[in-house]
Every structure is written in structure tokens, then in C-alpha cells.
């Protein structure tokens, strides 16, 4: 069962679990919603689909650029608002040796 109009989702690129800083977090991603249901292969038992757009992830510098791409290609899209992350308080190296520190020195 195929849809007439592809539906895309535009969202702010999240920080990976291996990342502690803010590098590469300002970008926006465009992904397609699945056009057909996944089904189990009778021979191998693996799940798959004939929809190859599901594997596609496009990255953009700004939300406006992602929206312009979707409009230019006739895609219906939904924009997820950007979620604010926790505020990172910058520290100096001297904080490790500060007098009256509450936590132990770990290195």
C-alpha cells in the first residue's frame, strides 16, 4: 500500500551518547516516514520492507533549508521543535585544585 504524498519529519539533530560537547548539534535532519509496513521474510525470518526511502537521512544547516527542500520536492512535512539541552557550565582546570572542593579529586 503506497501513499500518494511522502511524509517527511524535520527535527534538530540530537547529541550522540558518546558526545559531551555541543559540536555537530546545530544541524537539522529530514527523514521519511515509512510508506509501507515491514514484513517478515518467510525464508530467513528477518524483517524488511520494499520502502528504500526509510533508509535516507538528509542533513541541513538550518531548519529553513530543510523546509525549502521539502517544499521544492512536494513533500508533506512535520517540524519537531528544537529541544533545549542542559546548560553546560564551563570550568577551568584550576577548579580541580580549588580549596574547599566538595567532591574528591579523581585524577
From TrEMBL:
Pfam families in the record: NDUS4
Coiled coil, from the record: none
Subcellular location: Membrane
UniProt KW keywords: Electron transport, Membrane, Respiratory chain, Transit peptide, Transport
Protein name as annotated: Oxidoreductase
Gene3D superfamilies per the UniProt record, alphabetical: atu1810 like domain
Primary subcellular site in the record, as a coarse category: membrane
InterPro entries per the UniProt record, alphabetical: NADH_UbQ_FeS_4_mit-like (IPR006885), NDUFS4-like_sf (IPR038532)
A single GO BP: electron transport chain
A cellular-component GO term for this protein: membrane
